[in-house]
Amino acid sequence: MSHRDSHDVIVVGAGASGLAAATALHAAGRDTVCLEARDRIGGRLLSAPTSHPERALDLGATWFWDGEERVRTLAAHSGIETFDQHLAGDTILQEATGTRRLAGNLIDAPSRRFATGSQSLTSALAAALPTDTLRLSTPVTAIHPHGRGGLDLRTPAGMLHAEHIVLAVPPALALERIDFSDALPSDLVCLARSTPVWMGAVAKVVAQYPSAFWREAGLAGAAFSRTGPLQEIHDMSGPGGRPAALFGFTHARTVGPGFDKAVTAQLAQLFGPAAATPDVLHVQDWSAERWTAPSTVQSLADYSLFGHPLYQRPTLEGRLHWASTETATDHAGHIEGALASGERAALAVLAAAAGANGRSISATTASR
Whose CA is closest to 116, among 88, 79, 87, 86? Predict the structure, then answer.
């Protein structure tokens, strides 16, 4: 391999949790590399560029809320512009018998968004790393304990060795994609295989328009439907309504032939004829993302497993650390949860290293 093959820490996954862990470990002076299976960073933070300068539309995570201080601080320190989610206007309810206009916004709560898209957060984290720290298009296929200590990690490019590994991908995905050779405890294997993947069974649809015409009609851009295909819809326009956009969620299993046409027909029924012809229609099916969703994603539904105590404890002799929003004890499923889990894993690695150094010093002293 062209890279040195042994490191203090290897982080698997360059989403928000993995990059949060990698930047913290690098800042603490640990020799760290971050491996990402995709050809891009961000994970479930994915933003589509628009024709409006420095404006993007989020195809993955979108909002953050009061009390989510890690996100707020990262955005502020990185110079990322944030703005309030649009709330003003009425809600549309779609039923089998037709649509009804309901007074006020009955769906959205006060929240904030990122003018340049949520993926700008991971870009800011990656910018703090040396260029050779981040390796894209490098999926991990196996993780095994090494006979002399530490962990071996296999990629298509060859083997790597680390004292510690931070596993910053959804647990169910890790168990399906990575060979652990029966080294993990059985209760942990069962837990990881059963833990849902946040957004993994969801498709997100974003429709961009020349203007936010629904606002002119006194609508919030908020709607919920009992007939579909989109079940809930929100205003996704940028600051000042530019770029103008609506977005909605649906079960990924509804995406198929004719889906785009069904979506635009639904939007027209909800918001009027102008909604039938968006300038751009993005359909992001997260269940089809091989580096997000395992094959079992549609059947994973026990969200009480998020933040399970087993994810808080390193395994494989304290060398394998879990980090993804699913493992967070607070704000699981949010960007905040992803950052918190990465921070927790980094602190655990540093504490283990400090303990090991202390034991080494004590052993040396005792032998004198």
Answer: 79
Q: Which element (helix H / strand E) includes 27?
A: helix 16-27
What residues contact 257, with CB distance under 8 A and at least 6 apart? none
Domain 1-45+118-196+290-368: assigned CATH number: 3.50.50.60
The angle subtended at Cα 362 by Cα 356 and Cα 368, nearest 5°, is: 140
Dihedral pair phi/psi, residue 59, rounded to 5°: -100, -5
User: How high is the pLDDT of residue 364?
Assistant: 34
**Region of residue 174 (phi > 0: left; psi between -120 and 50: alpha; otherwise: beta):** alpha
- How far apart are alpha carbons 2 and 147 in whole angstroms? 24
Phi, psi of 225 (to 5 degrees): -130, 140
Domain ranges of the chain: 1-45+118-196+290-368
Peptide bond just before 229 cis, omega within 30 deg: yes
State residue 106 phi and psi, 5-degree precision: -95, 5
- Which amino acid, 149? G
Nearest to 31 by CA among 126, 124, 127, 132: 132
What DSSP element (H or E) covers 271?
helix 259-271
Burial of 344 (0-12, 13-18, 19+ CB in 10 A): buried
Note the pLDDT tens digit of each residue in 80-91: 999 999 999 999
3-state secondary structure of 311: helix
Record the tokens describing residue 188, joined without a space: 């942990």
305 exposure class (CB count in 10 Å sphere: 0-12, 13-18, 19+): buried
Summarised one tens digit per residue, pLDDT across range 95-125 is 999 999 999 999 999 999 999 999 999 999 9
User: For position 358, what pLDDT does the model report?
Assistant: 56
Q: How far apart are CA 28 and CA 41, in angstroms?
A: 22
The answer to whether 227 touches 44, Cβ cutoff 8 Å, is: no
